[in-house]
């Protein structure tokens, strides 16, 4: 190993970041830096051969089949109005509590997250119905917009999660284990959000009405569950197939996509237009993800050749930190990067460097995947990017952006608390494994 190799690796990393700052799309920035590294570290014939085969070898992974299938399932559920029915059903159960409409929004997002796999889709779907109702009933813009944006992040934690799929393939971690590990933290996050909203409305004057609709009968609650049959059935199909060992994650994704398609066809209204639009959107999103995967793979190969990850691992483990402290240190870059890039980009940028440290230190890769996903949730609701906040603003234009970001602050604190609990008590995430 020579200093020249390390210097080259750091130069590639700096060049890629420079391209990002210059506004080059992340996929092309990764490809450019990776291609440069490939040419500079190998003879030209070897580089040409590797380049001719790399795109196929990086993307022709059977596990990637689940990504377009779950994306299609999410598009079908979005178009079928499942999010609206989840909101109506959740309100029957928790609407009588102080801050009940905000708490309803949290559980509606959790329900839709179980069939969408996307935080942006979850926020956009529930925002359409939840934010206008909350504003009409006296909730502040901060609590209305912050609740939808933050609860929407459950879409990347509660399975099926597109972010967990990308992490699984990037690190060769079991998708099934990650999905199972996301359930308890996802439910816990929803419950913590609900408790925080209850206290927010009770303790902060003007945040929202301290009373809501009257109590509902058990029969009405049972009817609400029946009316949300699509969510229940799809979640049971997907997770039941995986947890009971009936099939693999790929087969579960296929069953889920087929079930969502059947729901759209059963609904009847504009069904063929919805299916066609869903196929197009799924294809576009999948193509974008594959560009990122191929670019990140090429860039990661270049960094590995120059031994940047190995040097980073040796340097960090030299401090001989306890595992929990090392975990905190490894999560800090994700908390910072989350302010500027989306979760998938953040993972693909950092995992080639950070994951070798995770393996060397003996940190459970499933637990680390859940923790990184929690960091991505924070990034989705914090400035300057805060994609979920902008989705809510785009869906409900009268929302003031500053108020929306203010409304997300209590949720960020809750997220940090949960991350701390997961680090301290690993079994919270791993109990179902």
Automatic annotation (TrEMBL):
PANTHER family: C4-DICARBOXYLATE TRAP TRANSPORTER LARGE PERMEASE PROTEIN DCTM, SIALIC ACID TRAP TRANSPORTER PERMEASE PROTEIN SIAT-RELATED. The keyword Transmembrane helix applies. Belongs to the TRAP transporter large permease family. It comes from Tistlia consotensis USBA 355. The keyword Repressor does not apply. The complex comprises the extracytoplasmic solute receptor protein and the two transmembrane proteins. Its main location: membrane. It is a multi-pass membrane protein. One of its GO terms (cellular component) is plasma membrane. It comes from the Bacteria. Part of the tripartite ATP-independent periplasmic (TRAP) transport system. The chain crosses the membrane at residues 12-41, 102-131, 143-169, 175-203, 252-268, 280-303, 323-354, 411-432. Keywords: Cell inner membrane, Cell membrane, Membrane, Transmembrane, Transmembrane helix, Transport. This is TRAP transporter large permease protein. It is found in: Cell inner membrane. GO terms for molecular function: transmembrane transporter activity. Residues 13-425 form the TRAP C4-dicarboxylate transport system permease DctM subunit domain.
């Amino acid at each position: 190993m020579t200093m020249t190799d390390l210097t080259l690796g750091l130069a590639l990393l700096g060049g890629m970041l420079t391209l990002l700052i210059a506004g080059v799309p992340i996929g092309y920035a990764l490809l450019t830096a990776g291609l440069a590294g490939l040419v500079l570290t190998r003879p030209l014939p070897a580089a040409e051969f590797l380049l001719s085969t790399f795109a196929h070898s990086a993307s022709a992974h059977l596990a990637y089949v689940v990504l377009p299938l779950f994306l299609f399932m999410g598009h079908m559920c979005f178009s079928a109005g499942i999010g609206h029915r989840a909101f109506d059903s959740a309100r029957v159960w928790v609407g009588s509590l102080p801050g009940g409409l905000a708490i309803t929004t949290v559980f509606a997002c959790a329900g839709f997250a179980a069939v969408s796999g996307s935080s942006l889709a979850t926020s956009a779907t529930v925002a359409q119905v939840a934010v206008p109702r909350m504003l009409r009933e006296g909730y502040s813009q901060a609590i209305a917009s912050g609740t939808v944006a933050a609860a929407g992040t459950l879409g990347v934690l509660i399975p099926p999660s597109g972010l967990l799929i990308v992490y699984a393939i990037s690190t060769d971690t079991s998708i099934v284990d990650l999905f199972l590990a996301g359930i308890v933290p996802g439910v816990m996050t929803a419950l913590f959000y609900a408790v925080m909203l209850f206290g927010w409305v009770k303790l902060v004057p003007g945040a929202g009405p301290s009373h809501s609709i009257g109590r509902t009968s058990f029969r009405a609650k049972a009817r609400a569950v029946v009316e949300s049959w699509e969510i229940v059935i799809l979640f049971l199909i997907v997770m039941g197939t995986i947890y009971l060992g009936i099939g693999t994650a790929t087969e579960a994704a296929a069953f889920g996509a087929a079930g969502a398609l059947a729901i759209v066809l059963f609904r009847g209204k504009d069904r063929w237009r919805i299916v066609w639009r869903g196929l197009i959107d799924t294809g576009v999103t999948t193509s974008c993800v594959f560009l990122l995967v191929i670019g990140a793979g090429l860039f990661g190969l270049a960094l590995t050749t120059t031994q940047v990850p190995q040097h980073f691992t040796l340097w960090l483990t030299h401090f001989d930190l306890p595992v929990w402290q090392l975990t905190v240190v490894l999560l800090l870059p994700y908390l910072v990067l989350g302010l500027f890039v989306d979760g998938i980009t953040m993972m693909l940028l950092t995992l080639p460097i950070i994951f070798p440290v995770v393996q060397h230190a003996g940190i459970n890769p499933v637990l680390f995947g859940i923790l990184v996903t929690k960091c991505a949730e924070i990034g989705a609701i914090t400035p300057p990017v805060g994609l979920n906040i902008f989705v809510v603003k785009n869906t409900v234009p009268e929302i003031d952006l500053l108020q929306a970001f203010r409304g997300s602050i209590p949720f960020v604190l809750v997220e940090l608390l949960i991350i701390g609990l997961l680090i301290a008590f690993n079994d919270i995430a791993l109990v179902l494994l």
